[in-house]
Amino acid sequence: MSGDRESGDFESTVEPRRAPYDARHALPLLVDAHRATTRIVRVAYPFLAEGGLGADGTYIGSDVFSGGSFVYDPWVLYQSKVITNPNLLLAGVIGSGKSSTAKAFITRSIALGHRAYVPCDPKGEWTPVAEAIGGAAIQLGPGLPTRLNPLDAGTRPAAVQPDEWNKIVWSRRRALLGTLAESTLGRPMTAVEHTSLDLALETATTHPAPTIPDVVTALFDPDDDRAHRGGLRRSTLVDDGREVAHAIRRLVHGDLSGMFDGPSTTEFDATLPMVTLDSSRIGSGGNDHALRLALACASSWMEAAVADPSGGQRFIVYDEGWRVMRDPALLRRMQEQWKLSRAWGVSNVLIIHRLSDLAAVGDLGSEARALAEGLLADCSTRIMLRQEPDQLARTATLLGLTDVEIATIGKLPKGRALWRLPDRSFVVQLVRHAREVELFDTDARM
Known about the structure:
Layout lengths: L37 H7 L13 E6 L5 E4 L1 H6 L8 E4 L6 H13 L4 E7 L5 H6 L3 E4 L22 H24 L5 H14 L7 H9 L3 H6 L4 H7 L1 H7 L1 H4 L20 E5 L1 H4 L4 H19 L7 E5 L9 H12 L1 H4 L1 E7 L14 H11 L3 E4 L7 H8 L3 H7 L6 E5 L4 E6 L3 H6 L7
Parallel strand pairs: 3-8, 3-9, 4-6, 4-7, 5-6, 7-8
Antiparallel strand pairs: 1-2, 1-11, 9-10, 10-11
């Protein structure tokens, strides 16, 4: 109808009536009908109609697609068989919110009764976090007064008998010395070198509290009686262990002297909510080899408390993991710890920048590459923050991501991550308190 414009009336137009829908004239559906279970459909169409992981765990933030809260606890999910192990991989490029995600998750979990150990903190970023929550930060580096004896026996758990404990301590000490030697030599030890190191450790353990210098002395100057009992000549034993002696000597008279070459000047307090080894003085110059040796020593020093089954549920955080994964000897120790995570009640958290860091560990088919990819396979939970476009194909191959998931991690904003579990995935936006923003800030010097 039409009104008088001058009188201020409006004009309107009446739409013609449409014919009613007639199914007989509809175009045929060109896609065959398909029926599938929800388990299959949720892989093809992730993030839709997801019920979440429940409310028992640490609050992380909001589920982007459901709008609900997202909580996570590796031990709870392991008990409910959602995941097959409690280990986590966290990857994200610089500026993606990787550090804040890790620190928020760990510190909030401590409020639920868990504890956290950081055996190697190359940038010192965990020191203020540990101190803020009542933990301890042990600073290591040239010229600092702190010294750790990596051969410390530690405190015997009440459930472990003395004879069994002696075997455990021996095994831990021997494994550490082998790691230090092979890491410095850059090759596996020979059979005769293993024998020399075994006898040197036997000699050193005649002292109540053996140290690295005791082992080095025993390698350069073997015990005559012990050599004869092993059917060896002392001169032969000296020659066989010479290279190993010089390799381990680095911790006594080399660039790591003063840190691991005597009795400990501090104790590992397993009752604290967080203990971190601040190795920023060691790694600041880009000396990754020294950093790896320090990690091996610090891990062994912590291991007595970590291996106690009654010690509760603990996180072990490997920050800047790419810097310590280029050593087959150290990777073997880490793999053993990954395999024992369920027995020890430990969740290992490996933090890297991108999945291609694994490719830098070693050539395809090499032992180091296989060990590094084995660590990845033993992480049931993969937390992926934004990845650069040239990394997406590699990430998809290693993690078995769907096209939808790989497209998602290529455009995630800061603080948002894809949480990938064996059969489920979530896009989660980290929610932080103002105090956390201040405490976790890694751009303070910019």
